[in-house]
């Protein structure tokens, strides 16, 4: 196929360069899609729809919810445990609010009430947290009590009022 080793090397380098360029473009596109997704979440244009039937398709979900406005994106997630849900990204925030307020009217008699809320709540939970309800053997509830732990409400109120006067 190649007349010389140099020609082979040249073609191989061209393919590698093309592959790197392609991967770079794909990475940039993915980054741009993620920015758009985050922007839609921040603008409250993404609606979470929970309790979907297991036979619900993306097309059906989009068709049912587009009565509230133009939909940019629609995704359905079907799980083995039956916890099926979808996300709808509206073009305008007011359409997402309309879907939240009135989406329950789209329920058919043979399906459960939709669970509707704004999608992307994970953005508000980015910080790490500690499990304060741990059942660990080394957990000592006494160590978490403050000097106010044994006071009743009235005593706490008097203590707070005294500290304000100081």
UniProtKB/TrEMBL annotation:
Q: One of this protein's Pfam families, by short name?
A: RRM_1
Intracellular or extracellular location(s): Nucleus
The cross-references to SUPFAM superfamilies, in alphabetical order and at most eight, read: RNA-binding domain, RBD
The segment(s) forming the RRM domain are 45-121
A GO cellular component term found in this entry reads: nucleus
Q: Name one GO biological process term.
A: positive regulation of transcription by RNA polymerase II
Q: Does the keyword Transcription apply?
A: yes
Q: Which UniProt keywords apply?
A: Activator, Nucleus, Phosphoprotein, RNA-binding, Transcription, Transcription regulation
Renumbered residue ranges of the record's region Disordered = 19-38
According to the UniProt entry, its GO molecular function terms are:
RNA binding; transcription coregulator activity
Question: What name does UniProt use for this protein?
Answer: RRM domain-containing protein
* Species this protein is from: Tetraodon nigroviridis
